[in-house]
Every structure is written in structure tokens, then in C-alpha cells.
Amino acid sequence: MGVRFIYEEIEAAEVDGSGGLDRLQVESQRYANLIERASILPEKLLNSLHDATILGNVTQIESLIYQIREIDPEVSEALAVMARNFKHDEILILIQNTREKDVEATN
Questions:
Q1: Which segments of 3-87 does DSSP mark as H helices, in order?
Q2: Which residues of 7-35 are buried (b: 16+ CB within 10 A; e: fewer)?
Q3: Are 39 and 97 in contact (CB under 8 A)?
Q4: d(CA 94, CA 50)
Q5: How many CB atoms lie within 10 A of CB 87?
Q6: CA 17 remoteness from chain centre
Q7: Residue 46 included in any domain
Q8: pLDDT digits (tens, 9 = 90+) for 38-47
Q9: What number of other Cβ atoms are within 10 A of residue 63's Cβ?
Q10: Is residue 86 part of a domain?
Q11: Is residue 5 part of a domain?
């Protein structure tokens, strides 16, 4: 059958925890900040981005990200990176987390 396993070696710094937790905390804080900033986006715009992402409509996704740039360039850039790398699942997760934050804020 000729099965081959391809694996990635983990560097010692990742295993021993030297700086790993700090990096995780920084990334977690950045993501929380991104959710906070995305929560100011109009619901209609988020819904359109959600729908375009579900359909994989790259042209529409890019157009919506361009519109977001006028509201918040940082959120727009983060979304653009996700879109360029076809990380549509991450876009959807960000939208979901933003919606959940909005619901928490209203309670």
C-alpha cells in the first residue's frame, strides 16, 4: 500500500513552555480585541459577509471587506488575511463570536 507518514517536528521552545504561554496570551488578547472591534460593524454587513463566506463567493467577500475597511481598517485587514488564505471557517467563527458578544452585551 506504500503508506507514508509526514509529520512536523516540534521545536524544544514549543515543548518546554518557554514563552509559549505568553504568546498564547498575546494571541488570545488580540483575538478578543478583534471581536470587540468587529462588534461595531453593522449587523447587515456581518450577515452579508456570513452569507458570502458560506457560499464561498470570493468576489463578494472581498467587496464586503473593502466596505469594512471604511469602518475599521484593523478588522478589515484581519479578515483580508483570512480570505486570502481561504480561512473561511475562521471568518465564520469570528462572525459567530462577534454575534455572541453582542448578545452578552445586551443581557
A1: 12-16, 20-38, 43-55, 58-71, 73-84
A2: eeeeeeeeeeeeeeeeeeeeeeeeeeebb
A3: no
A4: 10
A5: 15
A6: 25
A7: yes
A8: 999 999 999 9
A9: 14
A10: yes
A11: no
First to last CA, the chain: 57
Q: Of the given ranges (19-28, 29-38, 90-99), which has the lowest mean pLDDT? A: 19-28
For 86, phi and psi rounded to 5 degrees? 55, 40
69 vs 81: CA distance, rounded Å = 13
pLDDT digits (tens, 9 = 90+) for 72-97: 999 999 999 999 999 999 999 999 99
Nearest to 79 by CA among 41, 23, 106: 41
Q: How many domains does the chain divide into? A: 1
Tell me the three cell numbers of residue 20: 509559549
**Weakest-pLDDT range from 1-15, 24-38, 40-54, 83-97:** 1-15
CA neighbours closer than 13 Å in the CB half-sphere of residue 101: 18
Q: Measure the CA–CA gap between 73 and 32, rounded to whole angstroms.
A: 16
73: containing domain: 13-106
One-letter identity of residue 99 = R
The answer to the question of residue 8 being in a domain is no
